[in-house]
Amino acid sequence: MNTQPFAEWMAVTQDRAESALGRFLPAGDSIPARLHDAMRYATLGGGKRVRPLLAHAAGELTGATPEALDVVGCAVEMIHAYSLVHDDLPCMDDDVLRRGRPTCHVEFDEPTALLVGDSLQTMAFELLASQAIGEPKQQLEMIALLAHASGSRGMAGGQAIDLASVGKPLTQPELELMHALKTGALIRAAVLLGALAGQPLSADERNNLDRFAKRAGLLFQVVDDILDCTASTATLGKTAGKDEAADKPTYVALLGLENARAYADELRADARDALAIFGDRATRLNQLADFICHRQF
Amino acid sequence: MNTQPFAEWMAVTQDRAESALGRFLPAGDSIPARLHDAMRYATLGGGKRVRPLLAHAAGELTGATPEALDVVGCAVEMIHAYSLVHDDLPCMDDDVLRRGRPTCHVEFDEPTALLVGDSLQTMAFELLASQAIGEPKQQLEMIALLAHASGSRGMAGGQAIDLASVGKPLTQPELELMHALKTGALIRAAVLLGALAGQPLSADERNNLDRFAKRAGLLFQVVDDILDCTASTATLGKTAGKDEAADKPTYVALLGLENARAYADELRADARDALAIFGDRATRLNQLADFICHRQF
Q1: In which family does this protein belong, per the annotation (chains A, B) (predicted)?
Q2: How far does A273 lie from chain B, in Å, by closest CA?
């Protein structure tokens, strides 16, 4: 267990996620073909698959089967993909580039992109409810958790706070609340759902895993803010520097670049600490947290 | 049982649905307040509540509790409300009037309306997964059914076909496929979920209920098309005549007004026939189908 080098595990798991998504999404020529084609365009062929990776890594804590983790990883990734399609729409960020390609509404059209986001969200819940991935009671808990993480008190709520905060100076607690919802909630859900797909955790284990999941979500966002102001559009595959251009509050704007980096290291250390209780079973999660911390794109 | 006059039952059940929605939706002043306020605006204070009424009526077939039916009715109604908010957006129907009031993006703004639709959809699934409304296995079936009915192979798919069909002459089978998805799938889900919230049905009962549910969905749409061309904007509370103005395919355009009415009567008769197996337990469903057939708004 865990003897495979991390880079290899990551590549294999990303391929696995890609192929599971391809299998679960409706065929591109099934009616309505344009919508299904656009759903596949918006979901397949790109992305770091951070959320499926987290689900698979967390599943190692509880002995979840790879098949159950495929379902969980795809469900969370579909929610993520839906949020990107809607965030890119003209009435939101009005962005034209995503994963190095035209955004969904540019490649297709705006009404189709709206329906793509709507339908990807629905499909995430359909997947979690229709596939046999554990005890029914546990599946219900997973659905409730994913829904809470992505709705108005989670991801969509963070997006609403973000909209309201453009051009306003935020304090660090306000910024953390926004990101805890906007990015953190879904990262946290990926970790918890991955673990829930296996054997039950003790209360102590669950608390620690939750602490890890929250730190990982925040870490992801802090590094994202750093990359938005230091990396190029070509490297990111999405428009760089757009947060600053849009006068959006970021950790770099709030803390400065050096302090933002130091904060990322701090979060990483606390995340590692939270995983100590799991011993070797947490190797992949630790490696992933390192990857999230040091990624260049 | 069923001795209450229909009009009274309907008023009481509509009130019950309204108050359950008000209870399940986040408070309008809870963070993010503008989003929650807009979700309440888009859902409360209007609407015929046809889907909750159908769920409650179908629940009488299987002895479902009113509390479980509140959850089911609200979940389906939230999906319906989300679809209206997104359909009214400028990139879709670009409509300004709904239930006699400004549409959500007019009253608030476009990004908020987008998030309102997204969040209402999420909340529907959160409700069905987090409330105790039956055996967990049955709840999973209900979630899978609602998701299938509202996604790309259901309501959203029908919307995509509708978009693609504007200005094109459709045959009756093509028109029926579009409406079976766009309106019918969610009406059918309301009926089936209501029944699923109680004791199990036999295979024969379920087949007949499904036949009723499909006829009721089609009936609702045919009558909607008739009203769109015969009723006034003031009576409907939404813009009248807009299907014809937008050159959208409707039953009236396809069959003419008189034949559309005759087709509605035919569907009504077949729906009644499908309910015969349930005897008196189907009284409310039959009354509702009459109401759907003869409504003036």
Answers
A1: Belongs to the FPP/GGPP synthase family.
A2: 31
